[in-house]
Amino acid sequence: MKAFDPEDPFTPVGVGLDEDPDEEAFSDMAWAVVEEYVRMGWGGDQIRRLFHSPFFQMAHQILLVKGEAFVEELAEKADRMRSEVHEQLRGAV
Q1: What's the pLDDT at 93?
Q2: Block means of pLDDT (10 residues each) for the chain, length 93 residues?
Q3: Residue 86 lies in a domain
Q4: Could you tell me which of 10, 30, 35, 74 has the fewest CB atoms within 10 Å of its CB?
Q5: Is 45 helix (H, G, I), strand (E, B) or coil?
Q6: How far apart are CA 66 and CA 41, in angstroms?
């Protein structure tokens, strides 16, 4: 195991906020999370589970603040995004 190095750019660092994010910020953060995981190949079902898992604290907090319908919409958008990319790739062949 590698020893902790404060200069290591890959060391995870938690950052606190001076105030709670507003609705728009929560929406932007949520979409950033979804987009990152969709790019790694995750689908809507996996996205749903991500937001329901307390292990993924930010995503879970977004679920608690924005609600189930919001997360469902994100999961559906994730599936649409994946479908569109797959269609584009099929057309490029």
Answers
A1: 62
A2: 72 70 85 89 91 91 92 91 81 71
A3: yes
A4: 10
A5: helix
A6: 24
